Description:
two-stranded antiparallel sheet, 14 helices, alpha/beta
Amino acid sequence: MTPTLPPDSNQSADNSQLWEEEMDAAIYSFDEIQTELHYKQAQTALRNLVNKLDLTPQEQTGLESEIGDLETMLAKLDQMVVQIATFGMVGRGKSSLLNALVGKKVFETGALHGVTQVAQSVSWVISETEKISRVTFPGLGKSQMELIDTPGLDEVDGETRAELAEHIAKQADLILFVISGDMTKLEFEALSQLREVGKPILLVFNKVDQYPEADRMAIYDKIRNERVKELLSPDEIVMAAASPIVRSLIQRDDGTRTVQLRTGKSQIEDLKLKILDILHREGKALVALNTMIYADDVNQQVVQRKLAIREAAANKLIWQATMTKAVAVALNPVTVVDILSGAVIDIVLILGLSKLYGIAMTEVGAVKLLQKIALSMGGITASELVANLGLSSLKTILGLAAPATAGISLGAYVSVAITQAGVAGFSCYTIGQVTKTYLAQGATWGDDGPKAVINKILATLDESSIISRIKDELQQKVRKVS
Length: 482
């Protein structure tokens, strides 16, 4: 019998290591595939959103900025642009920090506080001496980096600039919050607000060259362990000196000495590594996610604006139909015919509202919807029918009696006609409001069904006030005619 040899421990170790490497490679490849799929899905979803806004020229008015933002977000995905924005108080060296990252002066800096008055941006190309021409994502190829500088958050006219900061923060994929010493209360509040945006943040302790080593570390520890302990992890805090001041002792010709100040080499290597680490780990997914979050926010604004404009137009159409029905009912002296003409106006109103909300509906569909609404309204339509039949009959009798009474009965006729018109008008107004809600919800009644929707709407309507308004407008029309 051939003895079984013990396994070679070195070979087992090599196989185990090879297995782990293969597993890591497989997992990494899977993550890349997942990231690529999510990125493509984000592109498709955003492109469909931009192409299917379905806005009329009137609805587009006032929404140009929001629509432009959506198109900008789509271009950002298509061109693979990563946006990094700086925030901070005046004089913290935000512009200098970005200049140091770019490798040349492209953002305006100066001794005067608040030099950056508007948001500025520039594409970031890491210098060739670092053997990196552009920041690239794994499996993505060439991408663009955009650095965005913002005005100080505490400048004059801060409300406007705070809105600008919020707008840019929502678009940015990574935020650099720049301080230059121990954090103030205002800085902490601003950082907390930016944290609520939900974007990755690096807290950059800039101008560290202005502190002795012991003071610098004491401030750093205080910031890390006390100030932002609940907001950021230690890995999200980095020290930098974007434009360090170097002091040199110069001896003059007369033998006296003086201190000369000059700008030294920037110390931002740790910051660059932090940024690149974040982007290499999650850059592509981050861009896709942030773009869709921002696009969803803009889309909500567009939808709300769209609905508001359509609701205003719908309310105008409903009132026009209400008064048309009221006038038609008031002027028609023939019993039942006035009621039938009112039903025709209700159907025309439903068709007009469906067109306004972009939902196709035939006359048959409008009749069926009117029937469903009437049945769900229950007692209101029944009482309207009884009242209309009674008032219509009375109105007919008074109209016929006018010659015999030498016109005396016309006064009573007008009063009855206006009362009947008020009842019919309120019915039309209610039908219009119910139809508007139904169409605004995508031609559905929701989970509660039509009766519940109608009851909610009826609870918000002031019947006496609406009827009174209808009567007032009819009386004004009568006075104009007479």
